[in-house]
Amino acid sequence: MDTRPGDDLDAAAALAEPTRRRLYDFVARSERPVGRDEAASALDLPRQTAAFHLDRLADEGLLDVRFERRTGRVGPGAGRPAKLYVRSAREVCVQLPERRYDLAGLLLAGAMEEAQASQEPPRLVLERRSRAMGAGVGAREASGSVTQALEGLGFEPAAEGEGLVLRNCPFHELAHEHTALVCGMNLHLVEGLLDGLGDTAMVARLAPQPGRCCVRLEPASREP
């Protein structure tokens, strides 16, 4: 699965423009695909204005575009298909600092299902699945650096001495309420990330500090 949040800030910013937001709401509430003329007429907008904003929403992934002939005619003389818009399946969530409760939910739900089927301890299953997810992310980011991969997951890595501290926990509220469980999940997620990247120079260790993620990356040559 894709663990990147995407450009949600850009998508949210696109909806901050009042006309664009009205068009998005109109399309989202429609029971069928909406054409430019229909949207312009419904919102009393010039067609060119409606077309511009609808295309901007499509560019941001908030609307999907379809081409259909609404006359029912086919073949020569049937005319060009109309450009129509429908709400996309994309979900936009903006949280600052970045949180990734979607990932935590996937990991925890998957671990519970697997543990129930296998009769393994749920925490062991969660740790294994966390490491596997991290390895998958690392493999996809293999051409980049560990810093870039950590940023993609919302950890906000920063150099400190010879290692890296993670200034943000993407699962902050969960970690506050269920510290041992979520910190273990974090640790195995980052360990898997290093595995996927093929990075043997760094190791992940638990090093809790106030205001930071519980995981720290240090040179592998350093003694625990």
Write the layout of secondary structure elements.
Blueprint: H1 8-15, H2 18-29, E1 34-35, H3 36-42, H4 47-59, E2 63-68, E3 82-87, H5 101-118, H6 122-140, H7 146-152, E4 157-160, E5 163-166, H8 172-177, H9 179-197, E6 202-206, E7 215-219
Antiparallel strand pairs: 1-3, 2-3, 4-5, 5-7, 6-7
Quick structural gist:
This protein has 224 residues and is α+β, with helices and mostly antiparallel strands. Helices cover 49% and strands 14% of the residues.
Descriptive report:
The protein is built from 9 helices and 7 strands; from the N terminus they run ααβααββαααββααββ. It has helices at 8-15, 18-29, 36-42, 47-59, 101-118, 122-140, 146-152, 172-177, 179-197, and strands at residues 34-35, 63-68, 82-87, 157-160, 163-166, 202-206, 215-219. A 4-stranded antiparallel sheet has the order 4-5-7-6. Strands 1-3-2 form a 3-stranded antiparallel sheet. The radius of gyration is 23 Å and the shape is elongated. The model is unreliable at 1-6 (pLDDT under 50).
The biggest sheet, with number of strands, parallel, antiparallel or mixed sense and barrel status, is: 4 strands, antiparallel
Strand coverage percent: 5-15%
Compute the CA-based radius of gyration: 23 Å
Helix-strand string: HHEHHEEHHHEEHHEE
Give the strand line-up of the largest sheet: 4-5-7-6
The dominant shape is elongated
Number of strands: 7
Write down the overall mean pLDDT. 89
Uncertain runs: 1-6
Distance between the termini: 33 Å
